[in-house]
Amino acid sequence: MSEKLDVSARMNRLYQIQIPTRIIVPYFEVLRIVLADSALSECDSSPSLKFSAGESKQKGSNFMQRVVRRMALALMVTIVAGVAFARDNKVTLNGYLMDKMCSAKALKSDDPTASAKKHTKECAEACTSGGFGVVTDKKFYLFDAKGNELTEALLKATKKSDALAIQVTGTVDGDKIHVDSITEAE
């Protein structure tokens, strides 16, 4: 019973830090099954009055083999989940550069992409205090501090006056993106 509570408590902590549950929940479910099965197997492997000393010794070594196999399985699940988790969050978004203040107005329009396409470089340079982001698929993703720095450099270097199409690579966290790179798109 306490094992189930420990797993539940761990899962609750994971929900609070927003790790994708489709990766973590199966891992903890396998771990719970392995631990519960090991606990039951341990009870089965205790020496019994029915068996001679040689038979109980053999049964004990089988128990250790099962435990080692289950621990190896749990380790493999952990590694696979870690790799899947690391690959799952990197995205490349294509859209239009906007400042945060103008994005609210663009998202309320019938076609946010068309509104973002009309957004000018001068407006973006004037409204830097709220930060920048990308409008794509009728959604606005706000940049982190690195993204804002890269955007300011991009605005200084670009020759375009409007329709600031960009490609952003980074890690999405809700409606924010932790930017790795920003490039101007055609």
Major pleated sheet: 5 strands, mixed, barrel
Mean pLDDT figure: 76
Question: Which residues sit in consecutive blocks of at least 5 with pLDDT less than 50?
Answer: 1-5, 44-51
Strand order of the largest sheet: 1-2-3-5-4
Gyration radius, in Å: 27 Å
- Structural class by helix and strand composition: alpha+beta
The structural domain count equals: 2
Portion of residues in beta strands equals 15-25%
- DSSP summary: helix tally: 7
**What does the overall shape look like?**
elongated
Fraction of residues in H or I helices: 55-70%
| Strand count | 5
Sketch the topology as an H/E string, one letter per element.
Answer: HHHEHHHEEHEE
Quote the distance from N terminus to C terminus. Answer: 59 Å
